[in-house]
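Re: weekly structure request thread

Next one in the queue (128 aa):
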Amino acid sequence: MYKLTNFTKSEEECDTELDRWLYELKHMPERQNLPSRLRSTIFEKLYAIGEYTNLTKEEQKMYDQELKRKWDNAAVLSQAKLEGKEEGEAIGKLNSKLEIAEKLKRKGMDIAEIADLTSLSIEEIEKL
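Done, posted below.
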């Protein structure tokens, strides 16, 4: 493990972003939680990595498996939503075509012409 022995500033003396980074890296092992003044995405990630590296190999394996399961579930849900949306759009288009075909049929338009305009089969139009 690397030590930042040459960095001797106190927390109050840290006036640049680099100073804050170096201070936090040096004092991370002493802390249990991320201080509230550092609540930003980058420091949260830094502490998450630190926590992960402090886990035993077995705990890291369990954590990785749980994370993979979470990602797999999110992917399955996302795909299901996409497929449901696509299916809903296809059903909507079909219903729209059927409504148009029904109106044209009631007006006496030729079934073959309706089939050509709506891309529906003659059998589908005859059922209306």
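The mean pLDDT is 85. Residues 57-106 form the longest helix (50 residues).
Next request, please.
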